[in-house]
Design a protein that fits this description.
Length: 976
C-alpha cells in the first residue's frame, strides 16, 4: 500500500510539472520568402543570433525552430542572399522576406565534390573570382586571359598574342617536367578539355615541334561573360579530393543560373579595336651604314628606294600594323517560378587581329535549367553549344620555311620592294626564303570548332529531420569537341618553288570526354547547437577518347586547295582512350564555428598507370581555428582571426601510351611490316605524386579589410622522365619514374573597402606572391629538357639536381652554367574600384612582375640579319662582338603593366523610367582598355612569351611570336 502511495505522489508531481516542462521551450514556425522571386526560399539558414541554435528551411522555405524563450533575434542567411535579422516576439507562424545579393556569392567555397563551407571557416587558401571581377571592367576574349592579376599563386604566360589566345596557367609552380602542367578545369561539374591541337603547319614551315604551331588552348571556347564565379584550388591540400587529375591544381567554374520571378532580359554590346602593344621599329639606316654592313651594291638599292619613295619600307608596320575591329554582342534572359528556374543566353564575338586576315570568332548558346521535381528530387541541366574559329597566320619558330613573319622580317632589308605588281605578281625576297606580304595575302592557317558541353545533376533528399539530413547526388556530363584545321601554302610561294611545290594539311580531330559521380552526403548535428558533421562517400568515373587525323599533301596541282589534288600524300592518325575510376570519402566537422576540421581520402586507378587496376591513395586533412568566435575574444578592431593548416596529396599518371613499347611501320624491299620503336615503355610506371603542406591565417580588420597570408611547401615525387639506354638493350630511350622536385612559396592578399560613404566608395585589393623550385632528386645525369629550348649553345631548360626546374643553362667558354631563371622573383597586383555619386564607376588593375628571365631568340635572329634596331649603339655592337650566345640573349623580363582600366556611367533610374517607362530598368555606358601601357626593359614585343605553347616548361623562351595587342572598348549594357 505504501509503494502504491509513493507511485501516486510521483504521478501527481509529474502532472504538476508537465506544463512547466512544456512551456520551457518555444517553437517558432514560419516561412522564408524570396522577395525577388515571390516564392519560398529553400535551404536558408535560420539561426538564433549569438548562438549555434539553428535550422534550415525545407524545399518550400518552411522552417521550425525551438528556442528557450521569447523574444529572440533570428539571423537568416544563405549563399546569394543578403543576411536578414528579425526580432521575433511570438511563436508564429511568421513570414521572413529576404532579397538576393551578388555580393554574398563569395561567402561559400566548395570543399568537396558535394559540399561547401563559408569562406570564414575555410582551412585552405582558395581564390575566388566573381563575375564582376572577371568581366565587369573591360572586354575579355578568353577565361584564362581574364584571370591576369586576379589570383595569388597563379603565373599566367601568353603563348600567342593572336585573337583567341594561347595561355599557360601555372598554379604554385611547375608540377611536372614531361607531363601536364595545366590545371584541371571543371565547368558546372563537367571535366572540360583544354587541349592544344597541332595543325601540321610545321611540315610546311620547317618548325621543329607540334607545340610550336601557335595553337590556342580550347578554354577559348568558353565565353567569360557566362561565368558567375571561379574558384581556384591552387595546391594539393585543396585539390586532393580530385586525386590523379588534381596535380596541377583545379579551376572550378560555375556559370550563371536562373533566378525566380518575372523574366528579366539583359543586352550588352561591346565594340572596340586591337592595335599592336609595342613596335620594335627600324634600324636607323643611312647610306653609309648600309654600305658598311652590306656593301656598295646594297647602298645603290637603298639610294634608289629613298629617291623613289622618300623613305624605306616599314614591313613591321605593314604586317603588324592592322587595326582589328572587335564586336561582342550578348543577350540573356532569366526567370522562373517555384518549380523551374532558367537562364538562357547567346553571344557572338568577332575579333580581328593586328595582322590582316587574322581573327577569332565565337558563337555561344547556353541554357541552364533548375527544376524541382518534388520535395524529394531536384534536377539541374547545363547546356552550352559553341562554334568557334580562328585564322592565326604564320608566326613562331621555323627552319628556313619562309613563312613565319618574325623570321622573315629579321632578314628582310627595308629598301627592297616586296609588294605585288599591277598584275598581282609578288616578287621574291632577295634576302630570305619568303615574302611576308605574299604569306599574309595568300597563305592560310585556320581552325574551326564545334563543341557541346552538357552537364547534369540529380539531387535526392532521402531523409530529413531536426538532427539528420541525408542526400544522394548523381552528376557529371559530356564534353564533345569536333575540331578541323586547315593549312595552305600556294605552290607559287617562294620557298615552295623547287621544293615541296605547294603544301596543304587538313585535320579532322574529335574528342569525347565523359565524367560522372555518385555521392552520398550525411549532415548530422552530432552535438545539438555545437557540433555539425558532414560525411560524404562516393565514386567517380572519367573516360576520354581522342581521334586525330591529319592529311597532308605537297606538289599541288596549280591553283588547287585539296589534299587529293597533290602528288605526295601522307596521313597520320592518333587514337587514344583513357579511363579513370575513383572512390572517395570526406568528413567535415564544425564545432561552434571555432574549430573546423576535414579528413578525406581518395583512391584512384587509371588506364595510364603501369598497373591499370592498382589503386593509389591520396589523403587530405585540414584544420581552421577561428579565435574571434571564442567567448574570450573582445577586440572589436579585429573581427576575424583564423589560423589554418592543411595537408593533401594529388597525382598525375603517365602520358598516354607510356606503359607500352610501341611498334613503328617499316617498308623493306617493298614489303610492309612493323618494327619495335626506339622508345621503351615501362609497364611498372607509377603516377607522379604531389604532397603539399600549407599554413596561413586570415584576419578581418575594422569590418572593412581582410588580410590573407599563406605559406606552402609542395613536393612532387616520382617524376616521369626519359633516359638513354645502352645499345645492348635494343632500345634508345626509356620512360619511367626518375626524379623529385619541390616548390615552396608565399601568398599575401589584402582587400576591402577603404571608404564606403553614400557618395564615394573605394574598394581596393593588393596581392603579392612568389614561388621557388628545386630538383631534389635526379636518377640520371643532368640533361637539357627535350622540346624546351634550342640546345646549350643558345640556351635551354636544363634539369639538374639541386637547381631550379626553371633554370636556363648555356655553354659559356665550353662550360655549362646557369644563365637565367624564368621563375619571377615575385608578382604583385593592385586593383581599385571607385564609385562616385552612385552613378560613376572607375577602376584599374596594375600588375607588377619582378624578375624572371626570357631567352630572346627573336633578337638572335635580327642580329643575324643585321636588322636589330639597336645595333648602332655601343650595347648593340658589344652584343655582336660576344661569342656567348646563351648569355647575350637572356634578358630580364620584369614589367609593370596597366592590365585593365575602365570608366562607366549608370543613368539614374528615374531618367531611364522617363525615357522608356517600365520597359527598361537600367542603362550603363562605359569606356575601357586592356594592356594600355607597359613599363619594361625587355627589348622585344612582350615580356610575357612562350614559343612552346601551354604545355611542359613553356614560359620564357621567345622565337618571333604573334605580338600582343592593346584593346580599347565602348560598352553598352541595358537591362529590361
Amino acid at each position: 500500500m505504501k509503494k502504491q502511495t509513493n507511485r501516486s505522489k510521483g504521478a501527481l508531481l509529474l502532472l504538476f510539472f508537465l506544463p512547466v516542462l512544456m512551456f520551457a521551450q518555444e517553437t517558432i514556425t514560419g516561412k522564408v520568402v524570396n522577395v525577388d522571386a515571390g516564392v519560398g526560399a529553400s535551404f536558408m539558414n535560420v539561426v538564433e543570433d549569438g548562438t549555434n541554435n539553428g535550422t534550415a528551411t525545407d524545399i518550400d522555405g518552411n522552417f521550425s525552430l525551438k528556442v528557450a524563450k521569447l523574444p529572440v533575434k533570428l539571423r537568416v542567411f544563405a549563399l546569394g542572399f543578403s543576411t536578414k535579422f528579425v526580432n521575433v516576439t511570438t511563436a508564429g507562424p511568421i513570414t521572413i522576406q529576404v532579397t538576393e545579393s551578388s555580393e554574398s556569392l563569395d561567402e561559400v567555397v566548395v570543399t568537396g565534390l558535394a559540399s561547401s563551407v563559408k569562406r570564414s571557416n575555410l582551412a585552405n587558401a582558395v581564390s575566388t573570382v566573381t563575375s564582376e571581377e572577371l568581366v565587369g571592367n573591360t572586354g575579355q576574349t578568353t577565361v584564362d586571359g581574364a584571370l591576369y592579376g586576379k589570383v595569388t599563386g597563379v603565373n599566367i604566360t601568353s603563348s600567342s598574342g593572336a585573337p583567341g589566345g594561347g595561355f599557360a596557367l601555372r598554379l604554385r609552380g611547375i608540377s611536372s617536367i614531361n607531363g601536364n602542367n595545366q590545371p584541371l578545369v571543371i565547368v558546372d561539374g563537367v571535366y572540360v578539355n583544354n587541349v592544344e591541337i597541332p595543325s601540321g603547319l610545321r611540315f610546311a614551315s620547317g618548325g621543329n615541334r607540334g607545340n610550336e604551331e601557335n595553337a590556342a588552348n580550347r578554354l577559348a571556347d568558353l565565353d567569360p561573360n557566362d561565368i558567375e564565379n571561379i574558384e581556384v584550388l591552387k595546391g594539393s591540400s585543396a585539390a586532393a579530393i580530385y586525386g590523379q587529375r588534381g596535380n596541377a591544381g583545379v579551376v572550378i567554374i560555375t556559370t550563371k543560373r536562373g533566378k525566380g520571378g518575372r523574366t528579366k532580359i539583359s543586352f550588352s554590346q561591346d565594340s572596340g579595336f586591337n592595335v599592336i602593344q609595342n613596335k620594335l621599329g627600324l634600324r636607323p639606316w643611312t647610306a653609309q651604314t648600309v654600305e658598311d654592313v652590306f656593301g656598295a651594291e646594297e647602298r645603290a638599292k637603298y639610294d634608289a628606294t629613298i629617291a623613289a619613295n622618300g623613305k624605306l619600307f616599314d614591313y613591321e608596320d605593314e604586317i603588324y600594323g592592322n587595326t582589328g575591329f572587335i564586336s561582342d554582342t550578348r543577350i540573356s534572359a532569366t526567370g522562373g517560378n517555384e518549380k523551374t528556374k532558367f537562364y538562357v543566353g547567346g553571344s557572338y564575338r568577332d575579333e580581328e587581329g593586328i595582322i590582316q586576315n587574322t581573327g577569332f570568332d565565337r558563337l555561344s548558346l547556353r541554357a541552364n535549367i533548375d527544376h524541382r521535381i518534388s520535395d524529394v528530387f531536384d534536377f539541374t541541366s547545363t547546356t552550352n553549344y559553341v562554334r568557334s574559329g580562328s585564322s592565326r597566320s604564320f608566326t613562331g619558330n621555323e627552319n628556313e620555311g619562309g613563312l613565319s613573319y618574325g623570321y622573315t622580317l629579321a632578314f628582310t632589308r627595308p629598301w627592297n620592294n616586296l609588294f605585288p605588281d599591277a598584275n598581282g605578281n609578288y616578287p621574291n625576297n632577295p634576302n630570305y626564303s619568303g615574302n611576308p606580304i605574299f604569306v599574309r595575302d595568300q597563305a592560310k592557317n585556320e581552325d574551326s570548332n564545334n563543341r557541346i558541353i552538357q552537364g547534369f545533376k540529380l539531387n535526392t533528399k532521402l531523409f530529413t529531420n531536426d538532427i539528420h539530413r541525408v542526400r544522394f547526388i548523381v552528376n557529371g556530363g559530356v564534353d564533345y569537341l569536333a575540331n578541323e584545321t586547315y593549312v595552305y601554302v600556294p605552290e607559287t610561294h617562294q620557298a615552295q618553288i623547287g621544293g615541296q611545290g605547294g603544301f596543304i594539311a587538313q585535320g579532322k580531330n574529335n574528342f569525347t570526354q565523359f565524367n560522372s559521380q555518385a555521392i552520398g552526403v550525411w549532415d548530422v548535428q552530432a552535438i545539438p547547437d555545437a557540433l555539425d558533421i558532414t560525411t560524404q562517400l562516393g565514386v567517380t568515373y572519367l573516360k576520354q577518347e581522342g581521334n586525330l587525323v591529319n592529311s597532308r599533301g605537297s606538289q599541288l596541282t596549280a591553283g588547287q586547295t585539296n589534299v587529293d589534288q597533290s602528288v605526295n600524300q601522307v596521313i597520320d592518325q592518333f587514337l587514344s582512350e583513357e579511363e579513370d575510376f575513383g572512390y572517395f570519402t570526406q568528413v567535415e566537422g564544425n564545432y561552434k564555428d571555432q574549430f573546423i576540421a576535414t579528413l578525406g581520402y581518395r583512391l584512384d586507378k587509371s588506364s595510364r598507370n603501369g598497373d591499370p587496376n592498382k589503386l593509389y591513395g591520396f589523403p587530405k586533412a585540414s584544420l581552421a581555428v577561428n579565435l574571434t568566435n571564442f567567448d574570450f575574444w573582445s577586440l572589436d578592431a579585429i573581427n576575424q582571426l583564423k589560423f589554418r593548416a592543411a595537408y593533401g596529396e594529388t597525382g598525375n599518371p603517365a602520358a598516354f601510351g607510356a606503359t607500352f613499347t610501341s611498334l613503328g611501320a617499316s617498308n623493306t624491299g617493298g614489303n610492309g611490316g612493323v618494327v619495335v620503336a626506339g622508345l621503351k615503355g615501362d609497364p611498372n610506371v607509377e603516377p607522379e605524386t604531389a604532397t603539399e603542406f600549407e599554413v596561413g591565417f586570415d584576419m578581418g580588420i575594422l569590418q572593412n579589410l581582410t588580410l590573407e597570408a599563406t605559406y606552402y611547401n609542395k613536393t612532387v615525387r616520382d617524376l616521369i622522365l626519359s633516359r638513354a639506354l645502352p645499345a645492348s638493350a635494343g632500345f634508345t630511350r626509356e620512360t619511367t619514374n626518375l626524379a623529385d622536385l619541390r616548390n615552396y612559396g608565399l601568398e599575401l592578399a589584402l582587400r576591402g573597402d577603404v571608404f564606403d560613404q553614400e557618395n564615394f566608395r573605394w574598394n581596393t585589393g593588393v596581392q603579392f606572391y612568389l614561388n621557388r623550385s628545386e630538383v631534389t632528386r635526379l636518377d640520371v645525369p643532368a640533361f637539357a629538357q627535350n622540346g624546351a629550348g634550342f640546345g646549350t649553345g643558345l640556351g635551354t631548360f636544363y634539369i639538374e639536381e639541386g637547381k631550379p626546374v626553371t633554370q636556363l643553362v648555356g655553354s659559356i667558354d665550353g662550360e655549362l652554367q646557369q644563365v637565367g631563371n624564368v621563375e619571377p622573383d615575385f608578382q604583385m597586383s593592385f586593383n581599385n574600384q571607385f564609385t562616385l555619386f552612385k552613378q560613376l564607376d572607375l577602376s584599374f588593375l596594375l600588375q607588377w612582375k619582378q624578375g624572371g628571365d626570357n631567352l630572346n631568340l627573336s633578337r638572335f635572329l635580327t642580329d643575324l640579319g643585321q636588322t636589330s634596331p639597336d645595333l648602332d649603339t655601343p650595347e648593340g655592337q658589344a652584343r655582336l662582338a660576344s661569342a656567348a650566345n646563351a648569355l647575350r640573349f637572356v634578358e630580364d623580363a620584369s614589367y609593370v603593366r596597366l592590365r585593365e582600366a575602365a570608366i562607366y556611367y549608370r543613368f539614374p533610374s528615374q531618367q531611364v523610367k522617363s525615357w522608356f517607362g517600365e520597359v527598361v530598368s537600367d542603362i550603363k555606358l562605359g569606356l575601357s582598355g586592356r594592356n594600355l601601357f607597359t613599363i619594361t626593359d625587355y627589348s622585344s614585343y612582350d615580356p610575357e612569351v612562350s614559343v612552346n605553347g601551354g604545355a611542359g616548361l613553356s614560359s620564357g623562351i621567345e622565337v618571333t611570336p604573334f605580338p600582343s595587342s592593346k584593346q580599347y572598348y565602348l560598352h553598352l549594357n541595358v537591362n529590361f
